[in-house]
Amino acid sequence: xxxxxxxxxxxxxxxxxxxxxxxxxxxxxxxxxxxxxxxxxxxxxxxxxxxxxxxxxxxxxxxxxxxxxxxxxxxxxxxxxxxxxxxxxxxxxxxxxxxxxxxxxxxxxxxxxxxxxxxxxxxxxxxxxxxxxxxxxxxxxxxxxxxxxxxxxxxxxxxxxxxxxxxxxxxxxxxxxxxxxxxxxxxxxxxxxxxxxxxxxxxxxxxxxxxxxxxxxxxxxxxxxxxxxxxxxxxxxxxxxxxxxxxxxxxxxxxxxxxxxxxxxxxxxxxxxxxxxxxxxxxxxxxxxxxxxxxxxxxxxxxxxxxxxxxxxxxxxxxxxxxxxxxxxxxx
Length: 332
Description:
9 strands; 40% helix; alpha/beta; nine-stranded mixed sheet
């Protein structure tokens, strides 16, 4: 597994990475580390942005400031992007530019405790994640929206659609990309899933040396840079690290429980809108057998698309392929 240039792995880090490769960032999950109050929102003041782009914030009823991007024509069909752990809305750069250039309205927010959103102490769970997303949607009055979530963001989308999007009539379609549902951790209902010790390893990595962990994950299993013949991309690795280190250590630590132990079986069963499930069969962060292959069977109107040899971070390193498939699904 590749690591940062010329830095040897000590035994603890090697063990962490090993755990992480199997796990994967479910986080969002991007975790791959081995080692991933609903309510009305009030717009916060923001400076006008050039070329019609707005970058602003809302404040939820529990006082949490959520940063979001809103680009493109306000009368166009909206696409809402939900990022993975421990990243930010910047992880969707390749998709935001692709779709806004094709006439869509694109919206992406930083999850609470991540990126430019407030580093609040509480609320690092799927219910709050989904409620915060709904606050953004209500504030912008988005309707007929397509919601796309990656890794932990896929869990957020599943909870959002089931609990908020469908009941409010605001969602048209959903996409789960390398997503964590139905659940990552082993339970009585899912005895073949990952043992809790794997996620304890994630927590140890965040607590002991988050900065190094956030270098090792993207340099290794997240994008498949640890595979023979795969050339690491330093800019991609450094950008992952940059996004991760913008967020709160507490949010990242507590978010591990959210992306690994939240059973979303009932969320998936409740979703009736057309849902595309996209997953790479070489995802070392969120194993496809524990996620996509089971999730699509729980969805009432789901379609599975498997990408041979693709990694957990395929939205970045294989953006040309993924974007074309996303566009076809949205227009279909």
